[in-house]
Amino acid sequence: MDFATLAAQLNAGTILPEGIVITTLMIVIVGDLIVGRTASSRWTPYVSIAGLLAAVVALYYQWDSSDPIAFLGSFNGDSLSVLFRGIIALSAVITILMSVSYIDQSGTSLAEFLSILLTATIGGMFLSGADELVMIFVSLETLSISSYLLTGYTKRDPRSNEASLKYLLIGASSSAIFLYGLSLLYGLSGGKTTLSSIAAQIADTGSTQSLGLVIALVFAIAGISFKIAAVPFHQWTPDVYEGAPTPVVAFLSVGSKAAGFALAIRLLVTAFPLLTEEWHLVMNALAILSLILGNVVALAQTSMKRLLAYSSIGQAGFVMIGLVIDSDAGYASLLFYLISYLFMNLGAFTGVILFSLRTGTDQISEYAGLYQKDPLLTLCLSLCLLSLGGIPPLVGFFGKIYLFWAGWQAGAYGLVLLGLVTSVISIYYYIRVVKMMVVKEPQEMSDSVKNYPAISWELPGMRSLQFSLVLTVIVTSLAGILSNPLFTLANNAVTQTPILQATLTTSSRPVSASVAKVPLLQSDSDLRS
């Protein structure tokens, strides 16, 4: 094989966005070593954000690439992976904006935090396009190990140490189970590692109904469910969300979850096309459990971070509706909801960070009467929470109604009705927080709000926090009204992804009786009609 042929098969330009993030990571590390901790904290956040935004621009130019396969089939830079990689990069950008002041007040090194966060971002981006077993596992572990380090980053906080240890132990068990499932796939396929080759070899050898393949599917779903915090693999979520630094929790709730869903789509659709009914059944059960437990248990929470933890579990159940439907409209609705979730959830976490920095608490009862001292924070946090609950005309409403519309058209009536009921439940606990902030009389004001410090945006890192809050709220508010571009983006990502179109149109693929092919939604005007 000559050099030209090898270069063509490597197609290294496909990972240009990841290369930009890696270069940014090296600049942050080396720059911090050269100029020192105090000086580097002034410029490393802006370099990191610039690098991530440059990666997003590079992803834009890779949209609908004619040659997306890279590294001998290990990486697929198709439109689906481009969109997921963009979501992960943008979640890292907003996380950095909300981290500057938080990390500064914790007394730890900002450059080291950014280095680990960029490493986790790289792992998530590679995982979104990984199309080969070794690539999948290395990317997953890069993301996971970085997440463990971020969770325990505030070393002087016992809660952070405890959360990191729990996350590490449960995550290591999950990775071992997932790896065993991948090893079974490798063995059953006769030594193949590329997902499409595995599916073809298993079909040729007639091993589609073997016990080993079913066990591989169960173990793979267990590993994926841990990453997306689906019940019953959610045990780590409440403790990690409560103990970890809040910016880390924000990234895990969006970036890590998006990478998990990218892995779920690529692995289940490509490697298990002949076990469609089986993984439909399992994912349907996980979606039901996540919707019920996440939203019901959130009603009893007194900590804002734990409330958002169980909310995240419930939100995973909503997103899984699109995966269970397994149709063009289902995947498009899943993507649209993840884009919406990126801004409304990170906006809510930005509000929680700002309140905790000013009061030192995250108890829901301490938010009582906040509107009298901080109207901007009250408005922004209320809008983000209401959007998470699905109140129109915010973007969360259109995200949920698109999921429910696709599910109803596909015949998943029970799942859609359960989603509607649990959505109403979620509105209750979100509005409970809004009521606490807005309705309380001056004499009912909490002690934290009574001692609320004078609002100043001139402190180090507060400007970036303010920008993050305003940006997420603007997008959350306007994206619901002007949702056509996001609908089009999600639809195009599905229609331009060959692996989805091939598996959705093949006549040999068994389709669950409860799932029918449904047309893509072209605009929100179609939805309203």
TrEMBL record:
Transmembrane segments annotated in the record for this chain: 15-36, 43-63, 83-103, 110-127, 133-153, 165-188, 208-228, 248-269, 281-300, 307-325, 331-355, 376-398, 410-431, 467-487
Protein family (similarity comment): Belongs to the complex I subunit 2 family.
Keyword Plastid tagged: no
Subcellular location: Cellular thylakoid membrane; Endomembrane system; Membrane
Keyword Transcription applies: no
Pfam families: Ndh2_N (PF19530), Proton_antipo_M (PF00361)
Task performed by this protein: NDH-1 shuttles electrons from NAD(P)H, via FMN and iron-sulfur (Fe-S) centers, to quinones in the respiratory chain. The immediate electron acceptor for the enzyme in this species is believed to be plastoquinone. Couples the redox reaction to proton translocation (for every two electrons transferred, four hydrogen ions are translocated across the cytoplasmic membrane), and thus conserves the redox energy in a proton gradient.
Catalytic activities: a plastoquinone + NADPH + (n+1) H(+)(in) = a plastoquinol + NADP(+) + n H(+)(out); a plastoquinone + NADH + (n+1) H(+)(in) = a plastoquinol + NAD(+) + n H(+)(out)
GO biological process entries: ATP synthesis coupled electron transport; photosynthesis, light reaction
UniProt subunit comment: NDH-1 can be composed of about 15 different subunits; different subcomplexes with different compositions have been identified which probably have different functions.
Domain NADH:quinone oxidoreductase/Mrp antiporter transmembrane: 130-426
Residue ranges annotated for the NAD(P)H-quinone oxidoreductase subunit 2 N-terminal domain, each copy included: 12-100
Keyword annotations of the record: Membrane, NAD, NADP, Plastoquinone, Quinone, Thylakoid, Translocase, Transmembrane, Transmembrane helix, Transport
Top-rank EC class of the record's enzyme: translocase
Protein's recorded name: NAD(P)H-quinone oxidoreductase subunit 2
Molecular functions (GO terms): NADH dehydrogenase (ubiquinone) activity; oxidoreductase activity, acting on NAD(P)H, quinone or similar compound as acceptor; quinone binding
Membrane topology value: Multi-pass membrane protein
One cellular-component annotation, GO: endomembrane system
EC number(s) reported in the record: 7.1.1.-
